[in-house]
What does this fold into?
Amino acid sequence: MNRDARDVAVSCNHRKALDLYETALMQYHSYVGDPIATIDQALAEAPDFVLGHAFRAGVLMMFGEQRFVLEARASVVAAENLAGQANDRECGLTRAARRLVEGDWDGACRVYDQVLVDEPRDAFAVQTAHLLDFYRGDALNLRNRISRVLPHWSAGVPHYSYILGMHAFGLEECNQYPQAEATGRKALELQPKDGWAVHAVVHVMEMQGRGDEGIDWLESRESDWAPDNGFAFHNWWHLALFNLDRQRHDRVLALYDRQIFPEPAEFSLQLVDATAMLWRLYLLGIDTGARFQAVADQWEKKLDIERGYYAFNDVHALLAFLGAGRASAVRQVLQDLETTARGTGGSNVMMAREVGLPLGRGFQAFARGRYQEAIDQIEPVRDTAHRFGGSHAQRDLLTLTLIEAAFRAGQPNLARHYLAERLVHKPASALGWRLLARTEGAKPVVPVAVRQAA
Ligand SMILES: [Fe+2]
It folds into this structure.
């Protein structure tokens, strides 16, 4: 039995294919380069490279888009056909990929974790399960899944820094901000060009309202995470978010036009960020010109294939259609969510039923000016909305919409209620204080200590 650079079992003996796998794995971790193109080279060298097929399926599925499922399924079948020569780890990776293409993201995560029981240094399994935890909004396992393998890693093991970067993000999503920041900075000492670790520290600054530090953090090390990084669009989004908090709306729009949506985006992940930024601007009454139309155009092109695949994406498509005033497309997305919610199989059924559908109805009510209805739909699911994925920072959109709905429904006390929560946790956020100022006349309850901390 062969062992790879991390002492993980691999059945393949083909040296060039294994070397190419290492390159593809590094590309997967770093978001620099094309891991699919590289693994395709490996499979051209060694068509019976079962690990390569399982890797290919998993990486394709991590785009979170229906359009890649067919191709991923072909890779799963190729891996399954080679089961006779696969080791236990590779059989596990294949079973996990099978679950993925069948829509069982929860089951896939469990199988990847089973692989990690015996092979805790399987960096591909670690990262794929980590990304699935993100898509499934499983904050606890964003941290704990990495914690379970961490004792098996050290600075001498290739790709250790990326494991630290993932742990940093998991710690942040579990609200352990000092530990998250320290871990992220340690990861970056080992590998400065880890966009995910940069992003983990960004999230700490975002959650603590440290906007000026966040801007400096991203701008001072821009060459580490941009431009040639497939994840850069999201760090640009965070930079715009920091600027939005500081009311630098021209800067936000410039970042949007040059970095977040410089040309019609191809991937749902990019469209999600573009849409979410426009919705935040819309809530604040900032003129976004024709930008909603351009994003809505891209969502419309994708929905024939993507509708009903992932509720998190569907809700963002709906936001784009609301912003663009496309009522029939809004109705279509809501119908898709209703259809999905009535289904019986796959992780997305719960996401659509428990989170996507009430949120979609709430956002629609908001855009129609039915603010009480928006509150009635959004408020009950706000605290469980993590179940359809994303980060705390992304889902802040729900709370901001809820607060704005409360203002417009003539309920400043309700707005103040949620602003109090926000300002206790994020006292340095200028946006929170500006919104609170709108509650003038409502009973002030924000503690003096919080005001002084800002
Ligand atoms: Fe983020």
Remarks:
- Residues 60 and 72 are 6 Å apart (CA to CA).
- The first helix runs from residue 15 to 30.
